[in-house]
Predict the structure.
Amino acid sequence: MSHPTVPATMLAARFHAGERGVTLEEVPVPVPGRGDVLIEVAYCGICMSDVHMVDGTLPPFVSEVTPGHESAGTIAAVGDDVPDAWSVGREVVLTAGKRCGACLSCINGQPFDRCLTPLIMGSFYDGAWAQYVLVSFAQLVALPGGVPLDQAAVLTDAVATPYAALKDTAQLQVAESIGIWGLGGLGTHAVQLARVLGAAPIIAIDVSEFARNRALALGADAALDPADPDFAVRILELTDGLGLDVAAEFVGSSSVRNQAVTSLAAHGRVVMVGLAPDPLVLTDSMTPVMRSQSLRGHLGANPTHLRELVSLVQHRRLDVSASVTRVYPLGQIHEALGAIERREGHPVRLVLDPRGR
């Protein structure tokens, strides 16, 4: 079943491996197959991982793709064997990836976050920098009234990834101390989420004074410059001489990860979320062993995380109304990419509106 106004073609921003940037192209609107749902995209965020793929900093996974994995919109058409709950016209938010369907975990029926080779939307298959995007119905989370579509789009990665990283991978507990390195889109939300999860104290860490002040306004108990010569002393002062229970790293830098490790308390955990091609080399490999510390990598979130976040926003336990810094029509994708590369206005998230072309 499809909406009668679904066109044959659509505008999409396409990435071609070996070329810097994206090109705006008119391409066919995908047709839903078995278990598929076609979404008319209302909003899609621009993540720094998108920017780094487009500018060549991160290697591409496929030769050609439509980027974009932070999206929300309206169901425009459904394929066969899609549950009746997912009907045309329903507003939804999309998880940022899907199971590969081929690894041993998937064959054995394990959920998305147990997949051995998860597929990220906009990196492994076409994403939502387009007027329409095709996804599995398993990626959908229904949107209740009171959750704006632009805010919902931001939830899918910029909020869901740090939420899953702190809640599940780091296993952050009430009254545990946390340091958050990198106060961009994910790190800024990590400050808010650490507060929702009951962490204390919350220490925000960034070289940018603007980012540190923003974190304080969002609920951080302290904000530090990682280049401060007294940084290690300040961490101990703020944690009663113990160090951090959790160090969350959203930068993607070996030097930052080393600073995070050296800031840990006994039994502390570093959770690494920032993507980085450079090798991880620890300057001190003895202390993590002697103090039972751990380093844990984290990628993405699952539909359960996204449903929880939608509920938190709906019931006003989490406020992401200030997270959408600016909305650009899809046709202004090059201006938007330039703005985020230059960090104009210190954005939390820049968002595309494909409906405005």
Summary: DSSP finds ten helices and 18 strands in the chain.
